[in-house]
Amino acid sequence: MTYRLDSDVLNTHGTVKRNTAPKFHSFDRLRKNWRQKKIMAIWPVSHCHTFGKREHFVEELRKYMRVYIYGDCGNYTCPRGTKCHQKFAKEYFFLLLFENTLCKDYVTEKLYFTLQFDIIPVTFGGADYKALSRTTFLHWRPRIQDTKTSGRLSQKHFRRIRLV
């Protein structure tokens, strides 16, 4: 029993299914929500040093933009759960969901939970995210050794958000 899609018994953190009654929010409401946000990104994290070296990527990304770090590895705390995600969605544009290691098919439980809030998840992992609509998240899979990737991500996606 594993999270691998090719395992005999699949055990994942969540599933994705088509929403038969999609909720549409007016563009005016979305624009108002986004104009109230003040900080580009948040990274909730409990494992500070990882095999995937995600912490180096975030450290480099912080040279280009403000990233608030919540949890055991940062200066901010918020208990897990809906209230915390509501706070994140109100204040931040992006939620960094970077895996400890880049394992095939593994998706963090935070991604499934985050999709119901007004915040854009940024994934960094080994999973195939084809089941998700491409408009619901950003997937970034840089070469870890390439320190320029943080700057490219910042310039390509994060800075454009101010145009809303």
From TrEMBL:
Pathway: Protein modification; protein glycosylation. Its main location: Golgi. The keyword Cell membrane does not apply. The keyword RNA-binding does not apply. Residues 34-139 form the Fucosyltransferase C-terminal domain. InterPro entries: Glyco_tran_10_C, Glyco_trans_10, GT10-like_C_sf. It is found in: Golgi apparatus membrane; Golgi apparatus, Golgi stack membrane. One of its GO terms (molecular function) is fucosyltransferase activity. It holds the Pfam family Glyco_transf_10. It is a single-pass type II membrane protein. Keywords: Glycosyltransferase, Golgi apparatus, Membrane, Transferase, Transmembrane. This is Fucosyltransferase. It comes from Haemaphysalis longicornis (Bush tick).
